[in-house]
Amino acid sequence: MPEDVEMNDTPAPAPAPAATAVADAPASAPAPSTLQHLKEIALVVEAGSLTKEVRRISRAVRLTVALRRRLAARDVAAFLAFALAPSSEAFTRLSPLLPKEDGSEMDVDAAALAAQVSIKHGLPEIEIYCYLLVLIFLIDHKKYDEAKACANASIARLKNINRRTVDVLASRLYSYYSYAHELTNSLAEIRGTLLGLHRMATLHRDELGQETLLNLLLRNYLHYNLYDQAEKLRSKAPRFEAHSNQQFCRYLFYLGKIRTIQLEYTDAKESLLQAARKAPTAARGFRIQCNKWAIIVRLLLGEIPERTVFMQKGMKAALTPYFELTNAVRVGDLELFRAVAEKFASTFSADRTSNLIVRLRHNVIRTGLRNISISYSRISLVDIAKKLRLDSENPVADAESIVAKAIRDGAVDAIIDHANGWVVSKETGDVYSTNEPQAAFNSRIAFCLNMHNEAVKALRFPPNSHKEKESAEKRRERLQQEEELAKHMAEEDDDDF
Question: PANTHER family per the record (predicted)?
């Protein structure tokens, strides 16, 4: 059984004559080349394929992601010549997609390392890994048309493979397949293909592929604002335990966006905050998007986010438009709200939150009205319309309807004197004599308990499925043996004493 191959820090030195070994030895061995790293990763993939261990395939993917910035065309071309047979279909498809470079250095490197390592040709895992490597290289070098062709070819090949050791590579290929079409503005073309792949992953019980493809389909629908279709797919998709934290965070983010559009702000807030909390620290862009949507949702709920939310490390500049928007909502100034919305219109449009900010206008008016009711015991509807800066044809009538709706919803504790055109605010009582502190305390306790339950669920215990259940008779025999052994040890101790 082949053993797991570790990536060496330095390559093995070539044999040299004894007379000249010391004189010609360099002060320090040269660092291993990118091609050497790729060949060692291929050996890890080969070991995972032969031993059917998925963890080795996952390790090879992680090593490749760490190596992607160092990839050059000559390294990828040399690796294809090393890993694939020249007459194979994969080699024929992938080689023309790489940009042509001077191959003199590549040939020397390949010839020098040919005798060191060798790999078994024809393994599906190696072939799919080559597709993944070329696709990553083309996307990183902005060869989007070639990347699209490579992605299509890789998906066509994946449809004919059903191996557990390929599932990890397949899930990465699905992601880059969708990303390549997103970069070329052709996401709508692959929706049917993604649905077919999701059905195939379900039939093959590929849970990692299921959650990856479900997120890709949700992203596809949301890209074209098809929120109803996204919700129908999400509600009817088969349930399974999340295997990847990254995919679970994406799912929570998409779920939060769907809930926000459907006016289910409480559930949306919980999903978005959980996605931002669970996301890796390095995924700064994703966490920024989660925080942007969470801020809007909290404003729609009537909450004002804490200042520390906007001052997080690495997010201050990106969240500045939302900080000014929050300040406008907090003050209740409709004119300031319009100015902020116009100033950062391009930013809100790029974040696809413009339609949500339109909904905030009513919250701004309600906040301003609440401030007015606290400041004045009695005020006319004309003055309310002026202070709210209503720009409609009949501002007094609009102010009256706004106040009436706020009173009905419980946002303002006042009465309207229609005869005199006044709004009379009732005296504010002691807030601690109401149920508001209890409700706030209860929500905090529920949040802490929910976080504790999620932490307990995330714990992983060693599987005991291979152990047979101990019968009552065997348990009695084991306890009897333990008692006899303890008695025997006690007798030996007495003899020694």
Answer: 21D7, 26S PROTEASOME NON-ATPASE REGULATORY SUBUNIT 3/COP9 SIGNALOSOME COMPLEX SUBUNIT 3
27 φ, ψ (degrees, to nearest 5): -65, -40
Check if the beta carbon of residue 155 is closer than 8 Å to that of residue 173: yes
Would you say 115 and 46 are in contact if contact means Cβ atoms under 8 Å apart?
no
Cβ neighbours around 78 below 10 Å, total: 23
Output the CA angle 183-77-142, nearest 5 degrees.
20
pLDDT of 463 above 60 = no
By C-alpha distance, which of 46, 48, 118 is closest to 81?
118
- For residue 293, the model assigns a pLDDT of 92
Within 8 A by CB and 6+ apart from 435, the residues are none
Give residue 201's identity as a one-letter amino acid code: A
Query: Residue 421: what residue type?
Result: G
Architecture of domain 376-427: Orthogonal Bundle (1.10)
Please tell me the number of Cα atoms within 13 Å of 225 on its side-chain side: 4
* Residue 9 binned pLDDT confidence (cut-offs 50, 70, 90): very low
Under DSSP, the state recorded for 425 is: E
Q: How far is CA 448 from CA 108, 153, 277, 279, in A?
A: 61, 48, 14, 19
Question: How does pLDDT run across 113-122, given as a tens digit for each residue?
Answer: 444 556 666 7
| Per-residue pLDDT, 256 | 92
Q: CA 118 to CA 6: how far, in whole Å?
A: 15
Domain boundaries, the chain: 1-12+30-185, 376-427
Contact indicator for 253, 272 with CB cutoff of 8 Å: yes
405 Cβ neighbours under 8 A, 6+ residues apart: none
* pLDDT band for position 104 (cuts 50, 70, 90): very low
Q: What is the pLDDT of residues 180-236, one digit of tens each?
A: 898 888 888 888 888 888 898 888 888 888 888 999 999 999 988 898 998 998 888
Q: In this structure, which amino acid lies at residue 451?
A: M
Tokens, residue 206: 């590929």
The angle formed by the CA atoms of residues 186, 190 and 191, to the nearest 5 degrees, is 115
> pTM for this structure?
0.73
C-alpha 36, offset from chain centre: 32
The per-residue DSSP string of 94-114 comes to HGGGSPP---HHHHHHHHHHT
- Token pair 């303890």 is at which residue? 486
Instruction: Please write down the long-range contacts of 346-349, taking CB distance under 8 Å and 24 or more positions apart.
Output: 347/321, 348/321
User: Phi, psi at residue 304, to the nearest 5°?
Assistant: -115, 115
- CA 256, 259, 264, 267 dihedral sign is negative
Taking the C-alpha atoms of residue 336 and residue 340, their distance in angstroms, rounded to an integer, is: 6
Distance CA 109, CA 82 (A): 11
343-364 pLDDT per residue, tens: 888 888 888 888 888 888 888 8
Question: Which of the two residues, 410 and 288, has the higher pLDDT score?
Answer: 288
